[in-house]
Records
---
Amino acid sequence: MMDALWILITACLVAVVCALPGSLLMLKRQSLMGDAIAHAALPGVFLAFFFSGDRSPAYLIPGAALSGWGAAQLSSWLIRKQNLGSDAALGLVFTFLFAVGVILISFFARQIDLDLDCVLYGDIVWIPLERFYVDTTDMGPLAVWILSGTLLLFCLMLWKGWKGWYLTTFDPLFAQAIGFNIGAWNSLLMGMVSLATVVCFRSVGSVLVIAFLSVPAATAALYVRQLKTQLIHACLWGVLSAFLGWVLALPLNISVAGGMACASAFCFIGVWFFTRKFLPSYNRSRSKSFG
Amino acid sequence: MSEFATIFWVLAGLTLMGMASAWTGLLLSLKGDVLSGDVIAHGVLPGIALSFIGFESKEIYYLMPGALLSGWLTLEARDWLVRQAGIRSDTASAMALSVSYGLGIVGMSYIRYGGKGSQSGLDRFLFGSAATILPEEILFSSLLMVLILGIILFKWKEIFLIYFDKDWARAVGFNPNRADRLLTLMTLICVVTGIQMAGVVLMSSFLIAPAVVASIFVRHFYQRVFFVALVSAVAVFAGSWTSAFFSNMPTGPWVVVYLSLMAFGGMVWRRIFRHSV
């Protein structure tokens, strides 16, 4: 029973960690970045493992996050300097890095013992097994600690740089005019997204990360009009989807991550139906900057 | 089958698949919707799981219709999100592909835990392996390529008009939705055939990269039609050669690496020599 509770806590943390950068990504029309980063992190995972010879997250998370962040920078260079469409640039970069990762892993498959499934595409069921020890005291699952740390970092970043996030998201031209460095803010956001993606897919698998980055943010954007409310409501919908998926999946004996992705879709459809039926004026007066 | 015959069949199948997806990708890039291939590739999973639960067979003829149907439904779901719910297309793509893949994972876990047998054979359909290709699959993909080439040749004027100037096409009496439906069908068939050889993730590259390379080097659409096929064939040959040279190397990733290197190399070349095509 305790294990099931740990799974729920982890999933809720994942939902919140993803919903914060996910909302910003959605507003900047870059939602597919999570998908791209989750795949582009593969060579980073391999290199971290190859040079450290250790499977501990202390090496894998920085390696994977750096490689994902590099992919984001490369694709934004392609968009700015090569006049490539943003979707074509993303598609080009993440398939290339994923292919390089697969080649590296199969090239060194005999020397090293790196299983794709267990390193890159984690399974939420195994969360309670990997413990965090201080000296020899058991402090609970490691993933919960890592996710809480990431969440704290994100809250700090959002709180300290609130004006910057606000301006660069909604009116980048104005922000640039009054002296904000758009490129730096954008790469900071990409760093946030790749950290979120990497930290989360180690514990829940890449599919749930992409779902939690996009679906709760879009659910909140159906009726919300303010950035602060958008962030809070996206987190709430994420947590609710995680809870519903957990409740659905455990008795039915199906994949918990898949169940949560489906539950987030149910939430979206429910909210869409509700706003359409009971708040039609909201849909008519939709401003262009949201959703 | 002798080793030479195996290599020949793999090469033939990959070349045909590469050319078909290069042409489809060229049309998709005109339409400005290149990631629909990625959406479909993730969207086939629930269809495969459901077909397996329904028919209890791993034969490709049973899995294919389910895969096509669920890929199409995922794409429709994305378009519904864009049109009806007012979601922007990138968010809508991410939502459709992740939820559909999640549904597929639920189905797969039901197969695994629900005593429906192993899902191990189904992985082949998703993660692709060019080396285990069968002659009848090559026949199928060559039919597909002839079909796509035929569509491009005979619907030339329509495609050209609609994707270069939609309003004018509508004004002179063409129906743009028909071309969209045709292109969706081509993408579906192409992706579902292709992921068996290249895998879910790498399939996008077969669609996107040749069109990007062509846009760097040649200007006219009819030149690009030949150029993307050439690029794709060169990458497939180079990739197959590399994977035959080093043993235990997967073919699909090498083809993708060569395709991407051509694209990146072309960009660097263009930047150095200031060519603008």
Note: The mean pLDDT of chain A is 84.
---
Amino acid sequence: MNSKNDIHPDSKLAEIIINHPYVILMLEHFEILLPVQDLTIKQICEKYNINETIFIAFTNLYCNKKGIPALKLTADDAVSITRFLAASHRYYSELIYPEIMQLIEDMSKQNNHREMKLVSVFFADYFKEVTTHLDYENQIFHPYVNCLVARDKGVEHVENQVDYSVSQYQVRHDDIEMKLADLKNLLIKYLPTYNDQLIRRKLLFLLSELEFDLNIHSKIEELILIPLAIELENKNIVACK
Amino acid sequence: MKRTHILILEDAPVIREGLKFIMDSLRNVEEVAIACTFDEFTHLLKRKSYQMVLISPNYLHSHHNQIQQLRNLYSSMKWIGVQYTIIPEALLSKLDGVVDVYDNQDTLATKLSKWLDTQSDDALQNKDILSERETEVLRLLAMGKSNKEIADELNISTNTVITHRKNISQKTSIKSVSGLTIYAVTQNLISLDDY
């Protein structure tokens, strides 16, 4: 039985966004633009050709409702999920990380404590690590998942990725959230201030927003995409290698 | 008792939500996170540190070996079973304690403070202040030295260095070496010339 707060196909997206504005981030990753008028989830999914089950599961995550239900997903869903993740990667590398970097620069101009120089270096180095992480997924893991999907659908001529498997990705999949939390703690607890409260607040809000989004991003990768890719791999492991 | 973060692994929704509801109402409990599946449980453990985990009997049976491995990995955490069916003695002996679904709020509060207070009295007394040895380890770490180099310099084992590092991160809330380096500069433990 559904409770009144459950998200279901007839829920109006606008009402969900009013209570949970971070859902807008999810919409952008699905490449859905505001305004959404009075459309329900079912209507939005039809309009943008998105699997309703995935859309509702992701919306629950962005509404901070705990837990991921056991989802029955198909090979086509793996493609939608990699597309969603790739759009998120573009948002991270082209928009939010550069925006944060700019704010750190602005803060360094206001606050010339010696520690701020270290913060700029810290974030620039961290951004390089994130870029390596995202590039690996864009160039190796997502194409591999798409290869598994193509094989599953019986496509004959698929470019092989010899000697690759999901387990290699699992070993390599590192945590890119830790340094964000470190930076938040440094800003909240330790970094001396000098006329920078406004920028510091903006920076903390952006960092919290990014942390929230990245946390869900890694849940989608580890708890939805990886199990689905392993399932596809087991189905056609011989065919794909 | 310090502010406690608890993680519950329980697949039965009514028990899960009930436990969370009561735990949330206890003083000094800061956060009660929930995992419905074992994958979600390991995912959350990797990402955050908890002082206590509560595990349903179903998972104690079905994931017995994995739980033992995790327990060795996260040995400073309290591992508590949730009892609503009989848990065999062999499994019980490997846990730090058991909560019973018939426990009321007061009993749970008493059990929790017993388990957590005995955890680390020293750490509680000096909750956020780095000890002299931890400060030394942090200073060397911030200067770019490896665990092995720090161990040699301070004449302690690498494992002891790792324990100090864990305590430093817990006290400062900062985990990465580069983040700790900035912290060390803010506290005047190293100067930028050392860096």
Note: The mean pLDDT of chain A is 89.
---
Amino acid sequence: MLYKLTACLLITIFAATAAFAQTISVEGEVTHPLKLGAADISKMQRTEVTAADRDGKPHRYSGVPVTTILQQAGVTLGAQLKGENMSKYLLVKSGDGYEVLFSLAELDSAFTDRVIILADQVDGQPLPDGKGPFRIVVPGEKKPARWIWEVTTMTVRFAKD
Amino acid sequence: MILFGMMALTFVNGRIPFTGEPYPLEYPASFGNRTNIPADNPLTKEGVYLGRRLFYEKMLSAGNKISCGACHMQQLAFTDGKAFSTGIDGVPTDRNAMSLANLLWVKNFFWDGRASSLEQQALTPLAAPHEMGQLPEISAEKLQRSKVYPGLFHAAFGTQIISGEAIVKALAQFERTLISANSPYDRYLNGQYQPGSAALRGMQLFMTAPAPERQVRGANCGHCHGGPKLYLEVFHNNGLDSIPRDAGREKQTGVAADKGRFRVPTLRNIALTAPYMHDGRFRTLEEVLDHYSDHIRNSASLSPVLRNTSNEAGGASLRLSKQEKKDIIAFLQLLTDSSFITNPAFSNPFN
């Protein structure tokens, strides 16, 4: 009976999670944890980058700079990105379980001119099945292994060791 | 008295104090140290030994009919050679019994990843009516009445009082020791084995993404089954069906993108673990290669890795030649770890 109750409870939790399936959670070392849906992201300041995917051809990707999202969550960027905060990283997770990592300094405009974006469009169209609704695009990176698709979670952490 | 009170409190919190000698885990540095061991269940020699006995203990099933080892047989890399297993009542399970190799690193258990630890995973086959059909609490009562088990639990967990929680903890400890790292492929990676020419060609295809525009042929298996452990901790829809009978991970998450998605399992000992896929639909590795080569079914949740991945420009499947399939299978044979399936430390102690 206990197991049945537990199973019911778990199913309820999963169902509740499913309702937020197409959102991105921003969590960890943040002052304001976020759950962003497509509507939230469309309200943010947009940008466009041109970058080559695995096919080697340049495409126009549009979306939101990752730093814009992190700033909204209160991550230590800009003037605060120094001292111990230099050992923080951003872990991005896909709905398929894949994970990739960026150091905060790699993302911050005080450190680099390269703008890494969370894209929701390519060449003016929504991202194709399997790669959307949100995908990280890293302009200039030779290998697109960090262009993680189906982004569901962005977690900021301290490197512990 | 205070000590007793503290211990009682510990039990109330549901934690079991551990005792015993730490169990040294040995594995190649290339496997990495991102292991999955809960803080409240460190491996001890006593715990692992108890777990091994419990793994093969029929008292954990209703009517003392079967043990975990019935569907996870060592000689088959801890599978049972069946598409669907049958438990105490002869009714087939919903999915194919998974191999138990290198679970130490796995973070999501079952074909749909619904359990985050081996402790949590073990609860299902123990209690499921078509598997072992007995709640761990009932098993604990049965073991409590035996002559040997109270002493073994005391050695492992510091108490003779047997609980369902302690049973799954011991099982999980044993399963974490099931490390396979001595196949010919491992020895090749260490520079101690020279594969034959077919296997070498197969390995090249396995690790290479096809690019017909550059005349590069490949099977791209390594994209998901690469690295020394031969799997990635991801869930993909590998194009078995356009409309899957078993929705896989979607049943857990409710997310449409998860339809037909299942865990990418390790390919270690793959020649021993037929039949293949979550439903055991393929009896041979030839059938598996035929699937990826010629029969990928399109759907909205088909893995992007399998879309437009072909050795023919515009092809919907890999389009491998007969010889290429044979070569890849020759490579897959190198993943069989004979010392893993004969290791006495993993064998049935009741034999």
Note: The first strand of chain B starts at residue 235 and ends at 236.
---
Amino acid sequence: MIEELGQWTIRNVNDLGRFSRFGAASFAAILRTLWLPRTYPLIFTQMNAIGVQSVPVVMATGAFVGMILAIQAYGQLASMGLEERLGVLINIAVVKELGPVLAAVMLAGRVGGALTAELGTMNVTEQISAVQSMGTNPIRYLVAPRVIACLLLTPFLIIFADLLGILGGWAVSVFQLRINAGAYWNYSAIGVEMWDISTGILKGFFFGGAIALISCYKGFTCREGAQGVGEACTEAFVGCFISILFLNYVFAVVLDAIYKTFWPLRPLL
Amino acid sequence: MSPKTIQPQDGILVVQNLYKTYDQRVVLNHLSLAIEKGKTTVVIGPSGCGKTVFMKHLIVLERPTDGQVYFQGRRIDDLDERELAQIRTHFGFCFQGSALFDSLTVYENIIFPIEQHVRVIDYKQLSELVKHKLAMVGMDGYQNQYPASLSGGQKKRVALARAIALNPEVILYDEPTTGLDPIMSDIINELILKLQKELKVTSMVVTHDMKSAYKIADRIIMLHKGRIIADGGPDHIRTHPNDIVQQFIHGKVGEAELAALRLGGTRFETQFLPEDFK
């Protein structure tokens, strides 16, 4: 029992160490890649695969989140006669938490799974060794463009999710639940601050980085065979999901502290 | 040849006391070897004897647990990845499964190593070069195909064309004829000989195909349990006194293995029919 616990700890510490080295190597590779304009086409290809093609699913996620929030919250607020405040509730929830987190989870499934499966298969069929054998750093060629694309585009995807979430909530509230549109937007405008929207988008930057790094790492360290690739994909998704939730918690704590300290000083600036 | 007598300058590629373990399992056990420039050296041995691992050490795709690797007299096993990248441009590596990039066409696969190391300005000239390289392996005209649409033998030939893209001094072949029909195997053997003759490269081939080994080798080395047990020209290997070598080159199973198979049980004891479970 103690032996097993010890082995488990050693294995996980080792894994964390390897992941940190992989992260550091990726960071160095990203800086080099950004420095060399001839590698930009690789980034654009990944941006298309990772970002552009994810727009429909992310928009659908956002829209349903907004619509469901409207339906679920209406009863509670209506019983207190506060249904016109539905807008502020939906919009704060969407732009601050649900939009970024659910869009990131959707990306972890769509993009993370694809990245791990692609790189894992390349690893198993020795294509990564082939890149290396031809004198090219596989992290620079394969990982850096994917991480850069994910880092840059996740915030934009979150904007799409937020937008559709807001529109979905508005459509259900106004057309289905018959709430006065003027009051709905008015309360929303008072309740939602620029801070809420911008921090939600800022989170996307980190979520995107975490998704790409974890997925690429799992692909690079994937075990042989179809089972190996399958396991790597599962581990990548679980890893991404947990990291998103953990990062979100960290952000909640840190951003709250920053907000309480600096936001009241805003009128002085 | 005693291991201690081998010096870094003895060949284009030299390994000294190469030792490699995976989870305390010894794969390479203090190998020392010098590979002569311009010759074809074939490494034979049963599956799992460490042949491929040995070859990967030569371009430091694997780092040794102990021992040294030298290329042109310079120690390379302790270099960092950036320096190794430069060294690796002197090598062409043909992987067992071809390892062509399946998201790229044949043309893009071949220009890959060139684009990585040379700033290409004249793409017309590059396309002529690709045509020439593909013609050398008899694959001109396949430029726009994807690897998925090629047969096993065609993939190996494209992989060969990619390996010679940077005009390497050394070409390493990992089981080039495995999984191919006898005629395609012979075509690959002929190609190895042709490249050797025309490009004057040093070749190193890992295989367990004896027909291929006899045909292409200037020197054959047999690995067994991570050690060299035979080393010499094809004729020397044919008449080698060691029983393990003789068993391997004639493809005969040893008495000990046969006895183990017999102990495994008769058909009656080991083979069940579906009705036995009803």
Note: Chain B touches chain A through 27 residues (CB under 8 Å).
